[in-house]
């Protein structure tokens, strides 16, 4: 089992022929991901990386039964790309683009709520189900198949957690990088819920950071749902000064509950196994599974 993407996903790349799209699509194909084509307006009918290029997402849905899209479109046009995918009936939309204006994402968020689809991102590393599909920019060789799910706001810490889990003799069901922007599609709680309901996932690693309430909402949901599976948590930004954006646009301490310390206390109070350093994630996973 897996969540969001697997070997049967029919994946297209929006922004297929650009430099980012070309590079990462090539890596995805090399990994064994089922990339069925791509979209670049005005270049329909061409072939790129031995895959067909379409002018629109609708055309890709009709001709190659696309159901999943990954977006490498510049920030000014990325919101339209997300909505085009949703309008065409794509079920899983993964947006890698960083720097999409918040005003654009407000419109996107409202729009996709009217559609039957899941948006991951923007400003995220993507989603990987090891051995089946890499739909994103993560280094695939780090990830091995197993029974631990990962949900993370940070791309780098996603890879770090996966590496530690693998070195402890375990592996990953699916890793979801949700992105660090103020407005994102899939929240921490929604991603944790997907993994909690996945039969093969026996433990969940939840990596958050300062700013916002996503981790607190997820932790409260975990407790309310009965703590069915152990959740290991880490919050980045413990030394961040108040009021300063740190790396991600959404990582800014607005109130007392937004600090790393406050979030860690909330996680602990809701039964999450919190580690105070990312270096301890793997050891803690082995402990709770052992």
TrEMBL record:
- Which SMART domains does the UniProt record give? CoA_binding
Q: Name one GO biological process term.
A: tricarboxylic acid cycle
Q: In which pathway does it act?
A: Carbohydrate metabolism; tricarboxylic acid cycle; succinate from succinyl-CoA (ligase route): step 1/1
Give an example GO cellular component term for this record: succinate-CoA ligase complex (ADP-forming)
What the entry lists under InterPro entries is as follows: Cit_synth/succinyl-CoA_lig_AS, Citrt_syn/SCS-alpha_CS, CoA-bd, CoA_lig_alpha, NAD(P)-bd_dom_sf, SUCC_ACL_C, Succinyl-CoA_synth-like
**Could you list the residue ranges forming a coiled coil in this record?**
none
Q: Where does CoA bind?
A: 17-20, 43, 96-98
Under NCBIfam families, the record lists: PRK05678.1 (NF004230), sucCoAalpha (TIGR01019)
Note the subunit structure. Heterotetramer of two alpha and two beta subunits.
Give the protein's function: Succinyl-CoA synthetase functions in the citric acid cycle (TCA), coupling the hydrolysis of succinyl-CoA to the synthesis of either ATP or GTP and thus represents the only step of substrate-level phosphorylation in the TCA. The alpha subunit of the enzyme binds the substrates coenzyme A and phosphate, while succinate binding and nucleotide specificity is provided by the beta subunit.
Protein name per its UniProtKB record: Succinate--CoA ligase [ADP-forming] subunit alpha
């Amino acid at each position: 089992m897996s969540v969001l993407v697997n070997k049967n996903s029919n994946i297209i790349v929006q922004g297929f022929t650009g430099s980012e799209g070309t590079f990462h699509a090539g890596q995805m194909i090399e990994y064994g991901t089922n990339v069925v084509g791509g979209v670049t307006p005005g270049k329909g009918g061409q072939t790129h990386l031995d895959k067909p290029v379409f002018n629109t997402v609708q055309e890709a849905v009709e001709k190659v039964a696309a159901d999943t899209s990954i977006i490498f479109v510049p920030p000014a046009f990325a919101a339209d790309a997300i909505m085009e995918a949703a309008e065409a009936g794509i079920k899983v939309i993964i947006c890698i683009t960083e720097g999409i204006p918040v005003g654009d994402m407000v419109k996107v968020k409202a729009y996709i709520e009217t559609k039957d689809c899941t948006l991951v991102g923007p400003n995220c590393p993507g989603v990987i189900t090891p051995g089946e599909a890499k739909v994103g920019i993560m280094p695939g060789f780090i990830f091995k198949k197993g029974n631990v799910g990962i949900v993370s706001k940070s791309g780098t810490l996603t890879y770090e957690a996966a590496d530690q889990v693998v070195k402890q003799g375990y592996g990953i069901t699916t890793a979801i990088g949700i992105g660090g922007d103020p407005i994102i599609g899939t929240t921490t709680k929604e991603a944790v819920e997907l993994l909690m309901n996945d039969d093969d996932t026996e433990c969940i690693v939840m990596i958050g950071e300062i700013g916002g309430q996503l981790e607190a909402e997820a932790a409260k949901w975990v407790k309310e749902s009965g703590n069915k599976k152990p959740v290991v948590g880490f919050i980045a930004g413990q030394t961040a000064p108040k009021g300063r954006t740190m790396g991600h646009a959404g990582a800014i301490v607005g109130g007392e509950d937004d600090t790393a310390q406050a979030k860690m206390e909330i996680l602990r109070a809701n039964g999450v196994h919190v580690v105070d350093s990312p270096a301890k994630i793997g050891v803690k996973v082995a402990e709770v599974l052992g």
